[in-house]
């Protein structure tokens, strides 16, 4: 078969297929368009309804999650929420912190532990404690009949000795020795704590702590 014959055969097949094809009427096309628009409108309504259901369910879920919010409760009864507050909610006026962040001016120059501690216990406070403690020691000394105790135990303390006494209290708490016998801390057989017996005698600490310390 030549090229020209092949082209003529294709044209004949195309004409036959075009004659068999029936063109739809304008009314049928209009009905189809109406049906298509009706279907699209119904679909849009269904989608809108689904969106409303999703929005309602979302709002309900948020409300339920807020109602079932869990908390950590502190020893003083303070409740700490596990989940953070929503960022799109306005903060209450009583919860707004207006103070500047950071250390206040009086504590900006404190660099060591001692300097920070002295911000809470000033020299004036320590001197006041020493004055009243020594007054109590004098009263005990006058009532005491033991000359040895008067000489080696019941003597006035200084600010330095008061600081050493407070330091031993801190250290005792750090070592969790509140349930130990006081003698165990002063033992010299290797089971005690060396810093206790090198700082002051056990009798002096007992005298200051249980009888003479007037911190009121």
From TrEMBL:
Residues 115-203 form the PiggyBac transposable element-derived protein domain. Transmembrane segments: none annotated. Residues 41-64 have a biased composition (Acidic residues). Residues 33-68 are annotated as: Disordered. Pfam families: DDE_Tnp_1_7. This is PiggyBac transposable element-derived protein domain-containing protein. It comes from Euphydryas editha.
């Amino acid at each position: 078969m030549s090229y020209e014959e092949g082209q003529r055969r294709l044209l004949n097949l195309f004409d036959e297929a075009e004659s068999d094809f029936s063109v739809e009427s304008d009314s049928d096309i209009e009905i189809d368009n109406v049906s298509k628009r009706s279907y699209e409108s119904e679909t849009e309504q269904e989608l809108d309804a689904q969106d409303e259901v999703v929005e309602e369910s979302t709002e309900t879920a948020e409300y339920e999650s807020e109602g079932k919010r869990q908390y950590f409760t502190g020893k003083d009864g303070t409740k700490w929420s596990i989940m953070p507050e929503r960022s799109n909610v306005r903060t209450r006026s009583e919860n707004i912190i207006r103070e500047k962040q950071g250390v206040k001016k009086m504590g900006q120059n404190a660099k060591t532990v001692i300097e920070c501690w002295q911000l809470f216990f000033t020299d004036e406070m320590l001197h006041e404690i020493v004055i009243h403690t020594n007054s109590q020691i004098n009263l005990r000394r006058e009532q005491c009949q033991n000359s040895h105790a008067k000489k080696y135990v019941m003597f006035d303390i200084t600010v330095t000795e008061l600081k050493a006494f407070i330091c031993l209290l801190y250290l005792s708490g750090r070592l969790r020795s509140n349930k130990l016998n006081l003698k165990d801390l002063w033992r010299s057989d290797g089971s005690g704590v060396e810093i206790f017996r090198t700082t002051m005698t056990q009798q002096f600490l007992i005298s200051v702590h249980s009888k003479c310390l007037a911190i009121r």
